[in-house]
Amino acid sequence: MESGYAKHQFKSWLSQFRNGSNPWMARYVYGFMFLIANLLAWAVRDYGGSVLTEMERLKGCHGVKDCLGAQGVLRVSLACFMFYFTMFLSTAGASKLKEPRDSWQSGWWSAKIVLWVTFIIIPFLLPAAIIQLYGEIAHFGAGVFLLIQLISIISFITWLNDCCQSSKSERCQIHIMLLATTAYVLCLTGIILMYIWYAPEPSCLLNIFFITWTLVLLQLMTSVSLHPKVNAGILTPGLMGLYIVFICWFAIRSEPTGESCNRKAEASNKTDWLTIISFVIAVLAMVIATFSTGIDSKCFQYLQFRKDETESEDDVPYGYGFFHFVFATGAMYFAMLLIGWNTHQSMKKFTIDVGWASTWVRIVNEWIAVCVYLWMLIAPIIWKSRQTAESA
Which residues are 381's β-sheet partners? Predict the structure, then answer.
């Protein structure tokens, strides 16, 4: 079905940008603005110290080294949050094309650029106490972002599994088995490598616990998925296993350098080209994750266990309000990554998400991911049993 803006598809992107006629193009502009905010926050953290010290309002860091850098990150994050939260308030509830909120979403770029620059300036005029308060609130907002991202990933895995299972052909079933087998092999390989890299000695009890518990969770997800009453197949637990193994690896990798159990961190302690490339990839991955999660406004339908509603030709292509809400919480999330979830922590240049706070946030995120996944498997059975009991 052609959408209401299909007639504009042959116009140039510059024309669509000027006329505000393409909401799909608009989301890339918002994503680019988010990337600029990420890079600005990083530049303020790593290279803005000499400039920030000239601003008296940024004092009050209690003598902690590089605290001004963390303050700068929070100020840029606050600016980004205010912009996207304003867009959220002004576009929430938009459902049809060509209504005023749709025009505001896709157009009026001159006004929005002025608004964005204004929001960038305002936080640098605020006292440090307000920024510290925002930093505490940002912990919660970043957690909300991680939860939304988690639900989006699980819903994608569920959708992929449903698409594969809908085809009864033997060739498709072979592909499912090959993909699931590959996922489990990668999971086990990752766990073995983590034991070698991050638990080289028996005294590394915490890392051994993290890795072993990840293996237990993988077994638990597989057992529940293959239970006769659930019958979710072997693909979804395999893909979820890849996800939690990746989170576990990311969590242990976030442990501070100097730990005897984190030899990989010690090996990468010097800032070299590989460190810089890793940092750039991490920033881009953060922006892409925020972007992809923002356009997935239908992911929560999997929690409600209902089919997509019928769409009409003049419906908006994605949830504008949800899109901006994700970017607003994403602004808090990138601040936490750049300061290691600790407003009084010194961060080395070209590092991201390092520190014990970062480690425990990742580990808890892994455990919540498993809980949400198991709930999405078990909840339909529980509700079906209740409906049967009520009708009996």
Answer: none
